[in-house]
Amino acid sequence: MSIETSLDELRVLKQHAQLGGGADRIDAQHERGKMTARERIDLFVDPGTFEEIDALAADFDNDEGERFFGDAVVTGWGKVNGRTICLYAQDFTVYGGSLGEVVGTKIAKVMDVAMKTGVPVVGLNDSGGARIQEGVGALAGYGDIFYKNVQASGVIPQISVIMGPCAGGAVYSPALTDFVFMVEKTSQMFLTGPDVILSVTGEQTTVEELGGAMSHVSKSGVAHFAASDERECLEEVRRLLAYLPSNNVDDAPIEDTGDSVNRRLDDILNVVPGESDMQYDVRDVVERIVDLGEFMEVHEFFAPNIVVGFGRIGGHSIGVVANQPLYLAGVLDIDASRKAARFVRFCDAFNIPIVTLVDVPGFLPGIGQEHGGIILHGAKLVYAYAAATVPKITVILRKAFGGAYDAMSSKHLGADVNYAWPGAAIAVMAGRQAVNVINRRDIQNAADPEAERARLVEDYVKRLEHPYIAASKGYIDDVIDPAETRTKIAHALELLRTKSVPVYQKKHGNIPL
Questions:
Q1: Which one of 137, 143, 169, 373 is the catalytic residue?
Q2: To 10 degrees, what angle do helices 282-289 and 485-496 make?
Q3: 16-33 residue pLDDT tens
Q4: Catalytic residue list contains 137
Q5: What pLDDT is stored for residue 359 in this prediction?
Q6: Which pLDDT tens digit goes with each residue over 333-364?
């Protein structure tokens, strides 16, 4: 066979692979309001940078008479914002994107490439689940991918983008990755579908209610981001990658924003009320602190009483954790604790400094919280901060009471620089609750109990509800002018870029899961 003939044959095979499941199935995909795997890749990566591998992989043991080169996934690498990433995109036009041996091998292979080269891996998921006809071979494929997810965890960023169905065992790979994106109305995640749930438990539900994007970003917390369509979703993934390093030994890319680190926050006291029980949106504070007001919030709709996300100061990426007085007064509960702990762990794994803004009345009391394991989940946050070795800077804005003071990146958990605003209250509990405990008899025996309570509360506030006792003990490094908050954080970050922390030799700690 001549080289010309061989090249012609290769072109035919490549063209066959490019068509996936064929024109009819591509049309059906479009009718569902979804793009094909290759269309998604073209939209996601920088133009002309995608390099495909295993385009000719196929199951030659398939005796059904139909062979799809490349099978039900497209794999390779390309560039996003000029930086290399590896990716795979499941192809729903081929066997409904189901995962068999060939698909599992291809995904595991591209994940190996990502780990060897130290680049992020992005998975575009659109699959009907395991290929039933292949039996245990399909299950083995999932197991291999799960193993790779765990090995890659903390080594390279892993991002899962759900762009169609993701059911059964398929959901565990996204759950093992760092961030999950979903598309409203067209993507779902669940272990068992509505029909199975109805037959087993008698509960009635819909696909969207059970496993749609808004269910997972607001109720379960499985997903971190929800987009209105596929284009917006992929653009948000590109935006997220711009904040992240390629791997655990690199630093995040630096962007010259032109925003001076010495910029004062002259209107900050108009944003944060002086009264500790008045609401405000802490995102207004965050957006004034970070460069150009650009803040990418993570898990926006889940546990809204705490805010986490990425921004920049002086062009360098930072992770922000902030109590949100707009919801539940910013109290720490089960969901807020695990949301923040997971984010802190990610930042620590990938060398992203953590800035913590504290305005917390304590942990949420209640039977439901206690029986739900608030002790265990609160301990996750304590563990995450204490174990983190990246630069940690904390600013107490208004109040930090009880165990929540400790948990929110206190000096006692290894925070490097701790600031407080002049009106900050740091104590075991707020004055009114405190005197009801320690002065109960004095109040009961007083001629005017309410007047006595008010006097005792005022005395407690003057003696204990301020930052100066903590500052005198070195637990607060400085009490600062709120207008200087951005500058103080920026200067501390500059100091801490050379931070080095010795660690005890051990296999790994036992985080309270």
A1: 169
A2: 60
A3: 667 667 777 888 888 888
A4: no
A5: 97
A6: 999 999 999 999 999 999 999 999 999 999 99
Q: Give the number of other Cβ atoms within 10 Å of residue 454's Cβ.
A: 15
**Could you say which DSSP state residue 298 is in?**
E
- Residue among 403, 446, 454, 483 flagged as catalytic: 403
1: pLDDT strictly greater than 90: no
Q: Is 368 a catalytic residue?
A: no
All structural domains of the chain, each given as residue ranges with its CATH number in brackets, are 3-241 (3.90.226.10), 268-428+465-496 (3.90.226.10), 431-464 (no CATH)
- Interval 149-187: pLDDT, tens: 999 999 999 999 999 999 888 899 999 999 999 999 999
DSSP state of 170: G
- 49 close to 79: Cβ distance less than 8 angstroms: yes
Q: Which residues contact 213 (CB under 8 A, 6 or more apart)?
A: 162, 182, 183, 184, 185, 187, 223, 226, 227
Residue pair 404/362 in contact by the 8 Å Cβ criterion: yes
What does the block give as tokens for 304?
């809204």
Cα 44 to Cα 159: distance, rounded to the nearest angstrom: 13
The tokens for 190 are: 């669940």
274 is catalytic: no
Could you tell me which residues are beta bridge partners of residue 399?
425
Determine the straight-line distance between the first and last CA of the chain, rounded to whole angstroms.
Answer: 62
Q: What 8-state DSSP symbol labels residue 253?
A: P
Active-site residue, 82 included: no
- DSSP three-state, residue 399: strand
- pLDDT tens-place string over residues 123-151: 999 998 888 888 898 899 999 999 999 99
- Tell me which H or E stretch contains 180: strand 179-183
Q: How far apart are CA 163 and CA 187, in angstroms?
A: 5
How far, in Å, CA of 108 to CA of 113, rounded?
Answer: 9
User: Which is the catalytic residue, given 22, 143, 154, 168?
Assistant: 168
315 Ramachandran zone, left/alpha/beta (phi>0; psi -120 to 50): left
Rounded mean pLDDT of 3-8? 76
Is the separation of the CB atoms in 144 and 104 below 8 Å?
yes
Query: What is the C-alpha separation between 89 and 38, in angstroms, rounded?
Result: 8
Q: Round to whole Å and give the CA distance between 286 and 300.
A: 14
Locate 231 and state its tokens. 């284009």
Dihedral sign of CA atoms 312, 313, 315, 317 in order = negative
pLDDT digits (tens, 9 = 90+) for 227-280: 999 999 999 999 999 999 999 999 999 999 999 999 999 999 999 998 888 999
Q: What span, in angstroms and rounded, lies between the C-alpha atoms of 228 and 471?
A: 47
Q: Where are the alpha helices (DSSP H) in 262-323?
A: 268-271, 282-289
